[in-house]
Amino acid sequence: VKLSDPSFPYINRDGQMDHHQLIHFPSTSTMYKLVLIAAVAALAAADTAPRYGYAPAPAYAPAPAYKEPSYSEPAVYSYTYAVADDYSGARFDANENRDGYATSGSYSVNLPDGRIQTVTYTVSDANSGYIADVTYSGEAKYAPAPAPAYA
Q1: Which tens digit of pLDDT belongs to each residue from 8-42?
Q2: Is the dihedral of CA 51, 53, 54, 56 positive or negative?
Q3: pTM above 0.70?
Q4: Positions of E strands within 2-145
């Protein structure tokens, strides 16, 4: 089909293209009617009404009830750890032994001034409290004070 062919539906008798037949837009009132019908259809399709009466049980089981752990047995444990990091220079260690209330242990840490602080502690029973013995070993070394920056 050629555009010059008068049998082509968008060509008028003079051989000119008839733009009015090519694209046809509905009127504004027709568009409002279509939008209103679509909105009513969407509201009708939305099922948001509350339901009363029978409802099936949820498909999941309820969470189990929390059971308080039993602390009737006295605590009994022992641990030891140590860290020696050559890159940062961090060095510390700790150990502790416990049998009921009777607890003993110690920990050591390298202080920035070069000394080592060691804390040794004991707890004999529930009423005796925490008894600590703090000792320092080594000699404190400090860097020289920087020179004043002003002239």
Answers
A1: 555 566 666 655 555 555 678 888 888 899 988 88
A2: positive
A3: no
A4: 76-85, 90-99, 102-110, 116-123, 131-137
